[in-house]
Amino acid sequence: MLSSALSKILPQAKLVLATAKPKLSQRQHLPPQPQAGFTLLEVLVVVIMIGILAAIAAPSWTTFVNRRRVAAVNDEILRALQEAQSKAKKTKLEYSVSFRTDDTNNRPQVVVYPKMPDNTVITPNDLGDSWQNLGKELEIKSGQVLLGTNLDVEANQAADNVTYATDANQTITFDSLGALTSISEPDLGTNGLIITAAIPQPDTTNTPIDSTRQCVRVITILGSLQIGQGAECDI
């Protein structure tokens, strides 16, 4: 019985093997498939296109970065003035904001400080490490942003022009009501007390690119603040 079953299966197995052999041999003789990749010419074309696009985009990117730096510094100037006003009202003490360009690292700096209750005189030069670099969040480097003001050496007095990159301490002081102190009559000039941030012109240290200027102005004796840009930052 087993032999009769094998005799039936063996011919069928031989038939399957016979039909499979041609297919296997056909697969073995198929032409090799080409491998995926890029030719040297294609790579060169892509590199050239990237270079062209980079050359087009670079000026726009530089302008964007510069505007962001100036905006960051201007925002910090505004916050410093608002902080001084707020603390003056809260503590009922005079608060001052002083600006300068540090002559060591050529960076714009600011410091906020009070008048002591016992009338001890504090000058910006006494504050040492309390001075803060403007634009520190963006890690602005030496000479990347100019700081300019029309402040005279006496607090709350407007000068005849905007001076950039000076290491002299230039100060705005608010009284206990958040207004400009009236110990000496504040002189706001034509457009107020102006603190300006700008990008320097190439190869200069104290001349701004006018179109990059942004500023904060104290426009009334009551201490009203206003932001501006470009020609709005003129005296």
If you consult CATH, what is the topology?
Answer: minor pseudopilin epsh fold
Rg over CA atoms, rounded to whole Å, is 37 Å
Instruction: Please report the number of helical segments.
Output: 2
Mean pLDDT: 83
Q: Numbering strands along the chain, what is their spatial order in the largest sheet?
A: 5-4-7-8-9
Q: How many E strands?
A: 9
Query: What's the main sheet like?
Result: 5 strands, antiparallel
How would you concisely characterize the structure shown here?
This protein has helices at 2-28, 40-91, and strands spanning 95-101, 108-114, 132-133, 146-151, 158-164, 170-174, 193-198, 214-218, 225-229. With 235 residues, it is of the alpha+beta class.
Describe this structure in words.
This protein is α+β, with helices and mostly antiparallel strands and 235 residues long. It has a single domain (57-233), classed as minor pseudopilin epsh fold, CATH 3.55.40. It has helices spanning 2-28, 40-91, and strands at 95-101, 108-114, 132-133, 146-151, 158-164, 170-174, 193-198, 214-218, 225-229. The strands form two sheets. A five-stranded antiparallel sheet has the order 5-4-7-8-9, with helices on one face. A four-stranded antiparallel sheet has the order 3-2-1-6, covered by helices on one side. It starts with a helix and ends in a 6-residue tail after the last strand.
Please specify the SSE layout and strand pairing.
Blueprint: H1 2-28, H2 40-91, E1 95-101, E2 108-114, E3 132-133, E4 146-151, E5 158-164, E6 170-174, E7 193-198, E8 214-218, E9 225-229
Antiparallel strand pairs: 1-2, 1-6, 2-3, 4-5, 4-7, 7-8, 8-9
